[in-house]
Design a protein that fits this description.
Blueprint: E1 7-13, E2 19-24, E3 39-41, E4 50-55, H1 58-66, E5 75-78, E6 85-88, H2 90-93, H3 103-109, E7 114-116, H4 120-135, E8 141-145, E9 148-152, H5 157-160, H6 164-179, E10 183-188, H7 191-198, E11 206-208, H8 214-218, H9 231-239, H10 245-250, H11 253-260, H12 264-271, E12 287-298, H13 301-322, E13 324-334, E14 340-351, H14 354-368, E15 375-388, H15 400-403, H16 405-424, H17 432-436
Parallel strand pairs: 5-7, 10-11
Antiparallel strand pairs: 1-2, 1-3, 4-9, 4-10, 5-6, 8-9, 12-15, 13-14, 13-15
Helix pairs in contact: 11-12, 13-14
The chain binds magnesium ion.
């Protein structure tokens, strides 16, 4: 084919939202309808329907939106003094500032840095508004965190009279005009590739990776990009001198097996751009709980606290296994007469941590127990946040960690205990309180 012969290009203009096919001798650089340079061109543009949408520097963008004096200044949202960075704006990032970096270090890298305390309630409201806009496009929306989600738009073309690509571009404009915030969109054939794509063109990006090019696109890129690779698997790869996705694919089958065991095929698939995980809309379970019925009625606070501590631990372990977070703790108490009462505490921020759940349960029990009242059953339950906890994030477990140094210490201790439990079983460690008060359980 000679150069002058026209080729058909699938295009989408993110300015005028024109889209379709255009026959041109060369790849068009600007929109033939409005002249804008914000043109997306891709062979698979109109056949792909899986997207990942991620808000750009979400917390900081909200702060800049609400205070235009900050627009051209380096900004982080995080804790003062002993806190850490929860989010850094793009200007702050040019100084090497990243999430989870101690604030003092960020301040040293950029003395004129503006530090803003998180306004979680506002971020959550906006996160919900964005999710509602996504859900207007498709019921298949799976949030990964407050500011990002997967969307499966397969089969929505008729409903919206638009290809998934065009619907997504419209949504991006809608979020910008309605909320004054930009998002970046990754459009691909599956979740892992869509998640990678949304990160390629930030901020206000629209990036497409087709099914046909996925494997070659990944070949020389680092394995750390892949969505679904655990921290320990990353460490194993590093130790084995494996860096790129192509390296994973090219490992001898025996070594793939010895490194990853039964997970080998899944990882080789991911590294080849193959990922069959469906988009699962929230929310599966709405609560998790654990309870104990006693052989004899119990009235002592210390004994009940000891039991609440191990029940909280069970709940926390389930949260961590399911990658969910608790937003409210409920304690259930049953009197010898079988009358049942429940008392709840709302948590300051979503958490998976045992010490947070136990603190809330302790608060309830201290208020409730006494005056010789006795009980035949104790339960600790949590209401779950809609969002999954994304393990791959290096952001702190909870925004509370930013402002509370003591929480960080407790979190570290708990992470160490979790590791021991993982290695040696659930009963390997007991707290002083649990040892002293051996709970009288029914077998
Ligand atoms: Mg984001």
């Amino acid at each position: 084919m000679s150069v002058s012969e026209p080729t058909s290009y699938a295009f989408l203009c993110r300015t005028c939202l024109g889209s379709g096919y255009v026959g041109m001798p060369e790849r068009p650089k600007t929109c033939i309808e409005c002249g804008s340079g914000a043109l997306v061109l891709h062979d698979e543009l109109f056949s792909l329907s899986l997207a990942h949408i991620d808000c750009d520097a979400f917390y900081c963008s909200v702060e800049k939106r609400d205070n235009p004096a900050l627009v051209n200044r380096p900004v982080i949202v995080g804790g003062e003094q002993r806190g850490v960075v929860a989010a850094a704006c793009y200007i702050a990032r040019t100084y090497g500032i990243r999430s989870a970096m101690p604030t003092w270090q960020a301040k040293r890298a950029c003395p004129e840095l503006v530090i803003i305390k998180p306004r979680m309630a506002i971020y959550q409201t906006i996160g919900r508004q964005i999710r509602e806009m996504m859900q207007a496009l498709t019921p298949l929306v799976q949030p990964l965190s407050i500011d990002e989600a997967f969307l499966d738009l397969a089969g929505t073309q008729k409903l919206h009279h638009a290809s998934p690509a065009l619907s997504l571009a419209r949504l991006q404009q809608h979020i910008k005009t309605e909320l004054g915030l930009t998002v970046s969109i990754g459009l691909a054939a599956n979740k892992s590739m869509a998640k990678i794509a949304s990160d390629q063109d930030k901020p206000n990006g629209f990036y497409v990776i087709g099914a046909a090019e996925a494997k070659s696109w990944l070949k020389d890129r680092p394995a750390s990009l892949l969505f679904g690779l655990g921290k320990s698997q990353m460490a194993k790869l590093k130790a084995a001198g494996v860096h790129s996705c192509g390296d994973i694919v090219n490992l001898p089958a025996g070594q793939q097996k010895s490194l990853f065991g039964s997970d080998a095929q899944r990882l080789v698939n991911l590294a080849s751009g193959i990922d069959n995980r469906p988009v699962v809309p929230y929310s599966r379970a709405k609560s998790i709980s654990s309870e104990t019925t006693f052989t004899e009625n119990i009235s002592e606070l210390d004994t009940l606290l000891a039991m609440a501590e191990s029940l909280s631990a069970k709940v926390s372990r389930q949260l961590k296994a399911k990658r969910r977070a608790a937003i409210r703790v409920t304690v259930k108490l049953k009197f010898p007469t079988h009358r049942l009462i429940t008392r709840s505490r709302t948590l300051a921020a979503p958490t998976q941590m045992h010490h947070d759940i136990f603190d809330a349960a302790t608060d309830v029990l201290r208020a409730e127990i006494g005056n010789g009242k006795s009980y035949r059953l104790l339960g600790v339950g949590v209401e779950l946040s809609e969002q999954d906890i994304d393990e791959s994030r290096d952001a702190p477990t909870s925004l509370l960690d930013i402002v509370d140094d003591n929480r960080q210490k407790k979190n570290k201790l708990e992470a160490a205990i979790d590791q021991l439990h993982e290695k040696l079983g659930d009963d390997v460690l007991k707290t002083g309180r649990q040892l002293k008060k051996d709970p009288k359980k029914k077998p």
